[in-house]
Amino acid sequence: MRNRIIKYLSIIFIFFSMGGIIAFISTQRVTSDLKVLINLHRVETFRQDLIINIKTVQNNLFTIGTTFGPELDIIVENVLSLDKAVNRCLECHHSSEVTGKLDRLRTLVEKYKDALSAFITTTANPERIHRLKEVAAEIGNLLLQDAEEMTYFAHQKLQYKTEKAIEKVNKIRELLILVLFITMIFGFFTAMALTRDIVRPIEKLRIAAEKVASGELGYSVDISDPPEFAHLGESFNKMSRSLKEQQEKTLEYVSKLRELHRITLSMHLVTEKKNIINEFVKGVVDVIDADGVLLFLYNPDHDLFSLEQFITKKSYLKRKEIKYSGEIIRKIYQGCGKKATMLYKNEEALRAFSEDNFEAENLYVLWIKHKNKLSGFLLIINVKGTITGEDTRILSIIANNFAVAIENTLLYEDIKLQMKNLKETQDQLIQAAKLAAIGELAATVAHELNNPLTTILGYTELIKEEEISETIKKDLDIIEAESLRARDIVRQLLEFSRKRPLQLTELDINETLQEVIKFLSPNIKKSSIKLLTEFSPLPNTLADKDQIKQVFLNLINNAVQAMPEGGVLTIKTGLQDSNIFIEVSDTGIGIPEDILPRIFEPFFTTKKEKGTGLGLSISYRIIESHGGKIYVKSQKGKGTTFKVLLPIKKHV
Amino acid sequence: MKRVIKGILVSVFSLMVIFNAYAQDHTLLIGLIPEQNIFRQFQRFLPLTEYLSKKIDREVKLTILSRYGDIIDRFSSRNMDGAFFGVLTGYLAIKKMDVEPSVVPIELDGSSETSGYIIVRRDSGIESVKDMQGKVIAFVDRATVRGYLFPIIYFKRHGINDIKTFFKEFYFTGSNDASVYAVVDGRADIGCVKANIYEAILARDPTLRKELKIIATSPLMPLSVLCLKKSLPEKLKTKITEILLNMKNDKEGKEVLKRMELKGFRRASMNDFKVVDDIFRELNIDPETYRY
Amino acid sequence: MTEKVRKLSVVVFLVFLFNFLFSVESTAEERVVGVVFSADIPVYHEVHKKFLNKLRKTGYTKKIKFLYQKPNPDSLAWSNAVRKLIAYDATILITYGSGATEAATYETANIPIVYTLVYDPVKSGIKGRNLYGVGYSIPVTSLLRYLKRTTDVKKLGVLASEIEPSSKTQAKHVSDACKDFNMEKVLLNVKNEEEIRIKLKLFSFDALFITDSALLAKSITSIFRIINERSIPIVSTIQGTEDYSLINLHPDIDEIANALYRTFLKVIKEDRKVKGKREIVQRSKLIYNMKISKRLGLQPSIQLITGADRIIK
Ligand SMILES: Nc1ncnc2c1ncn2[C@@H]1O[C@H](COP(=O)(O)OP(=O)(O)OP(=O)(O)O)[C@@H](O)[C@H]1O
Ligand SMILES: [Mg+2]
After folding, report:
1. What's A293's domain CATH number?
2. Which of A68, A41, A168 is nearest to A122 (CA)?
3. Is residue A154 located within the same domain as residue A16?
4. C173 and C45, same structural domain?
5. What CATH number is given to the structural domain containing C293?
6. In this structure, are residues A287 and A264 in contact, taking their beta carbons and an 8 Å threshold?
7. Which of A431, B54, B149, B226 has the most CB atoms around its CB within 10 Å?
8. Which residues line ligand 1 (CB under 6 A)?
9. Contact between C12 and A495 using a beta-carbon 8 Å cutoff
10. Phi, psi dihedrals of residue A575, rounded to the nearest 5°
11. Domain assignment present for A364
């Protein structure tokens, strides 16, 4: 025991002397810091120099006129000493932050030199000289600002360093106190060690606790005396065991979750409906040990639930096509309280399922719902063991994911279809533009050909009046006949392409309207106009698509322009007698009664600069040439409705 | 006693004054016509003054000669002993005052002369003078040969006597690089520029080579010429010229040349001003009265 | 031709005749000249005003009735505008910007079209028997050079309007030049304002080049709003957008107006074959926006500051 006491005392001594040494070293360091501080103050004067130099040059710049005399030498001298001052600063500093700032200062000085040089050497062009002076002055100001900022920065640094030094002194004091304190504590523990007999069982428990903490669950201790501790030992063993059980359970749960993640993920990764079904059924089989799994999906067209996919251990199924009527299934669904349920052999519901399709001891039904609607179910045949609440939860999660994944594939198909439609519409638009160009070409060619043909015919006529032989006459007849034929073709061509002949095609009016709306929708949106459409199914009719589009465009444009503050734009189509009607109504400014009769006149406009007053008159003409009619109804301040009637025309 | 001390003080003082005056009288003042970057130029020539001071045992000082107003007036009013002139200012100084050419600096690549260019954008469609009618031209400054006088004579030789009517507009950019960029940016159709500066700009920005094209090139002329006042003692003038010419043969001189980024100096003569002289003759201008 | 079609064409002809007589009343001595702006943007107004001022001095304006169309920048609206003017027997069409010009070439091959403010018309494919006009060229490389010297751009967004040939050509020129300046280009082709918004938000770059386009000029404020948030510079080639761009290089508007005036006179005097049908204006104006420069913390090169025709402070 005495040896031990001596040992402890010497440790205390070592602590004391270590504290002393640390304190000594720290004091040394503080003094050297103070030396740095003094140096820093000296550097500060350099910086003042720098600022004075810049200020001098700036003053030169403003006080000296443009006819530089000997003053130029002064500027050059000042700038060169400014250069020197910056370089001197660069020599002493080393912290990266400061060198960064100095580098910037240096590049600024270089720029300053460039600008000053350019200013001094530019000889003509007063505008340019003035700008150069401004540039130089501005860089000079920046330089000044930077240098001053650096001074401020250095000031702060000085203060910071001083504070640091004081802090260090304080730290040393704290250190000494700490050493004293540790020594005291150590003394205290020495005393404690003397009573370690009592402590030994505790030590045993500590080791056991550490073992448990490091993962050795289930570790037990053996303490027989003193009795108080034996009791404690037992409780510890109990705790250790229960911890082990708990951990095993958690691990099992985690592995189930991982499985669930794997299954649901693979369901969402595939886009084909068939693959999703496969993944789903496989997933369920992985989770539950049973003889077979059958998946039924709902077909709303026939109100039937039909077998989509199955996996069975043996050949349980007597047939591969199984269908249940929607009514029966819904009854069972209601009967189960819309929850997954286990059915046993004697239950009526089980019989309803098995009928003569398969035989089963028990049957687990899992409902597949999407958006609260029953979209299918899963039958699990002859479940081994019991299905826990945990299993039910996992199964229903898989089922929910399945329903969502199926829904997604349907949406995906839908988008693909829409993209295809869009592409087709675009192609059609391009085609229309090409046709217009061809028509134009035909007209020009026809026009050019007409004159020479007339001349040929005239001359043929003349020659025929001469005395000529029969053979030549026959040849001339042929020339005449062919020329007449050619002229006929030319005339037809001209007729066809005069101004804008109708290029009639079978048209879906709704579709055409839709295209125009799409083109204008950015406009409509921008004016915060709400668009309502009520399209009735329409038969196709013969019409010129390009021109009809132009009419819609003009009507909708007018409506939009009539609602500068926003409003509602309603576009309706439908059938009226044997006509198609298209109605464009707005809730805009309306048309005053006195001008209503004039709006179809060419050049009639109330929009001054913005309009030409051509839109409606052209639309009128187009509709008329289609054999249709256009009506207007309007109330000032309330809105306007334009109604177009088009006769339904078919190919003859 | 007091009087003695007073006497000594007075004589010492007057001696100092005399000495000072003597020293000042012996300071050689050399002018520099500012180029691109005057600070670099100044620092470049500083070693030369030290070297010369030592060799001729006299203080040599540099001063920047502003390009504004009459350089010649300034030269005499500031009482300079010599200056590194440009080829036009040198020519005028020789014609108007008593100065004579001494040496011409030789650049590291061996050249001591450069020419002037008339440039256009490649996509401008301008191939020759006849395409330039009604276009806009940018000169550098009236006081330059390459940036003004040469183009004028060039157009004259192509039958254009009045640039005011031939071009839609003409203006002075004030510096060589400004002329180049005026053409690059399409702010002028035609530009005039000193060749060495044009080449330096192209070296810095090689993409410009694809955009610009040279239509005409002037004869070569020295970049700068050191001229000395004729009234300096003959001996001193020869000494200075010889020292500069032989710098490249002496170790210290070599060191100075290296710091100046020069290869050496060559002797200058009236021949260096022949191109300018011809131009003045052809344009029929009297150099004595030429205003710029 | 069947009888029916012939009858129909007679009806159509009568309708046209009616309208013709109708409109002759007001334009007996006047000639109708249709004017289409590719969009309602300041630069077109400005050029047109200058053009009219010149024309007024010759007294021609008294004999001409101008009909204006300033549609929204999209191809359907351009065609619609041109058709309206053709239907009202415009004898000459003046088109501003490449979008309207291209639409006009599709709509007519007979009525003379005088176009203006079209960048590099040859490369932009603006051609036709009945085409006369004023194109322009500006050194886009110059713009890129100044940009690169002002801030180190690694990735340049190039905004181009798919529906305007000028814009596409300019975008191509810019893209080609990018390599020379060590910049990677991100080409953003757009058709309408919504696409502009989406694409600008989707892609990242250090600076945005706005090519010559009526659509883009019209949307300049919304472009600016998006770009401003990211504090990156815009450079542009359209007059009227200089308040939003750091650097702007555009053709000299006075020269354009003068050239338009000359071309128009030639066409209206039917003196068409005298000289070339096309004039290309090559002078440009450089504008530097100091306000934006300061806000972005950029320092322009001395060259740019002194070279600029105007500095916005
Ligand atoms: N939906 C509407 N609401 C109110 N006024 C209308 C409406 N539609 C047409 N108008 C009136 O009829 C006039 C003639 O319309 P029209 O479309 O012919 O020419 P515009 O719209 O003035 O010019 P643009 O040639 O550009 O179409 C308009 O100026 C306007 O006063
Ligand atoms: Mg309208």
Report:
1. 3.30.450.40
2. A68
3. yes
4. no
5. 3.40.50.2300
6. no
7. B149
8. A 554, 558-559, 562, 586, 588-591, 599, 604-607, 611-617, 640; C 84
9. no
10. -110, 140
11. yes
The pLDDT assigned to B22 comes to: 44
Give yes or no for residue A570 having a pLDDT over 70. yes
Nearest chain C residue to A620, by CA: C15
Q: Which whole number is the average pLDDT over B7-14?
A: 56
Same domain (yes/no): A473, A505: no
Model pLDDT for residues C37-91, shown as the tens digit of each residue: 999 999 999 999 999 999 998 888 888 989 999 999 988 899 999 988 988 888 9
Residue A374 has pLDDT above 60, yes or no: yes
Radius of gyration (C-alpha) of chain B in whole angstroms: 23
Range of the domain at B242: 2-112+222-282
A602 to chain C: which residues are within 8 Å by CB? 19, 22-23, 88
Q: Per mean pLDDT, which range of A205-214, A363-372, B162-171, B218-227 is the poorest?
A: A205-214
Residue C20 inside a domain? The answer is no
Asked, for residue B288, whether it belongs to a domain, the answer is no
The structural domain count of chain B equals: 2
Instruction: For residue A273, tell me if it sits in a domain.
Output: no
Label residues C250-274 b or e (16+ Cβ within 10 Å = b). Answer: bbbbebbbbbbbebbebbbeeeeee
Find where tokens 């038969």 sit: A539
| Minimal CA separation from C102 to chain B, in Å | 25
B143 and B270 part of one domain: no
Counted domains in chain C: 2
Determine the structural domain holding residue C148 and report its residue range: 140-250+285-312
Q: Give the range of the structural domain holding residue A153, as residue numbers without chain letter.
A: 2-189
Hey, how many other C-beta atoms are within 10 angstroms of the C-beta on A261?
10
Q: pLDDT tens for residues C3-17?
A: 555 555 555 554 454
Q: Is the ipTM here above 0.90?
A: no
- What pLDDT shows up at residue C51? 96
Which residue reads 């090559």 in tokens?
C282
Tokens of C243: 């308040």
pLDDT reading at C25 higher than 50: no
pLDDT in tens, A585-635: 999 999 999 998 889 877 788 987 777 777 888 888 889 889 899 999 999
Q: Which residue, among B169, B185, B208, would best test binding to C if mutated, counting the most C CBs under 10 Å from its CB?
A: B185
Cα(A631) to centroid of ligand 1, in Å?
A: 14
**Is residue C40 domain-shared with residue C70, that is, in the same domain?**
yes
